[in-house]
């Protein structure tokens, strides 16, 4: 399926030098932990035993290769844009791929990586063949669950007696000395020495809030990596214990009399109300005079109390992020409650911090200051990325988040190199990569370079960190270097071997590798990875079963794909906790898709590109190479041609049978989804005018698209994106606002976040509705293509008299006739991969189209009409 074209993506071969050996002397690996993790590693980790896995895998090498790749891409973009005209290529059918490719491709899942002068080649890096997987699948699931119980990897905090928590009376300098183990533990955590970090945190986790928060941060990261409800529940439980411990220390430190707790409660409540009505943290605080502070004329809150407040707030912040990622109404409400509690504590500490002025270092320890900067900065970034639809549900604040303040505080935290510096790097990288993945068309140019700079800063302290290598893989994808992205994920898997988060890193990176394979149209490799992840029960078993079936269908293995799809409804039904899971929305989309296939006896699968549809929903086309985009567009055209063939067949029945049992064909949902995919591919290729005709068809027939309701709002998103790149940005904003008006469809909040990011960016660069009078948005008026029936986008049938516009004062029957003719015209234009190269085929196809047209209009002798026209 991979065809060679003139476009060659930059490929960077990373040289891993063996002269810088890792210092494993400081890593005290537990025997129990090692054996337990080894038993849990699936067939995904079957690496060649002859390879040297102890070589340091420098993050800096990945970043250097990434920067080289970006520089080469910029040079290519400066060259003259090559013509959009493509050569004739046969339309590849999804059925044409031989089934024998499954076994051959499974042995080369990852690109070979060359290591220095040794020339070692990594083979079968991620997967062995299906038969081996099948042999162990039935035995590993139960053993993993049993091994997890009582494992050394499990992090728990025992019940804390609030009365036993002692007040913290250390001075700032004494506190910094006491917190040195925290700094060492954080360094171990981001250097892949997870068990060493865990032991350091556990030493005082039952009595010190910051040690408890260290454990909470570990399970927080693990929950993000595993994406499992069990890991999320465990993380929330540990963070709640941390919250209780910090609250108890605050209470025991401030309780001076019987009414102390009550007074503190009301003071905290009043602060919460006051700060929620403002514009964020209090900014009108007048710093106290240094002499007043030195002579104790102005009282200050003790450092121990401020430190506990920061820990309490950060625990709430991490819980809020976990609830937010569940993408459920209940999750959004709980997210709002935790954000409110977090910001209440942060505001109290911020008020003291500002009141101390330039002398804050004398009254607050540096790790607490680091916590203030990280926490308030993270809250601002999280809230600034949420759309109004989610903010109304969260209902956390009445003030507007300040994204620039968030960036400034997180960068200050990084410069301080204290306890939260590493978490600040993670927050910034997560923000850059997640938001750019959601809206790459608008944000890629803005955030890719800052992400690289953040990685450069992180690699100075953590050259082999699996966590930062994961983000290096995500950043490489944003730069359209999928080869480097896959290599980074492989290195992340390698560096986490025999450690606390081994399985989680393996699963997380394996999914990303599989998604990269989909973007390179390597369906066999992707199917093998997704099948194994499904057996490992990572993230969502139904989703990986669906992706496995979708990839098998792209390989032409229809029977195997149907078998994979057929199991999905039963698996979803047996999952009792699916409604509270973060994957619930995706699973419901998949379930509806499979039920539609089942209702037609899987006869309509030729008209649906499941894999391409999933890739569209997750913005894959913006990161793909030109050759793969052209292949996918040809596949989409092939599916459109199958719809045309089915319509011809079903209408031919109506020429010979009176009142046939077969209903008139209605493939609006299938055609709408395919045209949306094609328009998105054209936009990703920079051929924006050519996408107009397809998007117009979707908008014209939006009332007839009833099953896949998500198609219409996503089409408006693409319409806005097309307008944006055709220098009609005001109208583009209008289309995005129309998309926001739609509700109750699949991936609603995902699209809302994408549109919010685009609208926010438009506001930042000064695009305002006041600059231009608003225009009607039902059609692309004043565009290069005014409508479907007035296309100037290389449509082969635009000059045919049968498709001319009729008068505006037509009656209802004539309007229906015009609609049907427009539909047929768009179909004829969309069902061929390269219409501009097929002028000789137009007359023959037009005869067929006119027959179908007249059949729709109820003509008794359509053949005679065609002959008369000739």
From TrEMBL:
Compositional bias (Basic and acidic residues): 812-823
Composition bias, Acidic residues: 796-811
Composition-biased stretches (Low complexity): 26-49, 85-105
Keyword NAD: no
Disordered: annotated span: 1-54, 70-105, 791-844
Any Pfam family hit: Iml2-TPR_39
Enzyme class: oxidoreductase
Ubl conjugation recorded as keyword: no
SUPFAM superfamilies, sorted: TPR-like
Keyword list, A-Z: Oxidoreductase
Enzyme Commission code: 1.1.1.41
Biased composition annotated in UniProt, kind: Polar residues: 824-837
InterPro entries reported for this sequence: IML2/TPR_39, TPR-like_helical_dom_sf
GO molecular function, one term: isocitrate dehydrogenase (NAD+) activity
Name under which the protein is recorded: NAD-dependent isocitrate dehydrogenase
Organism: Mucor velutinosus
Gene that encodes the chain: IDH2
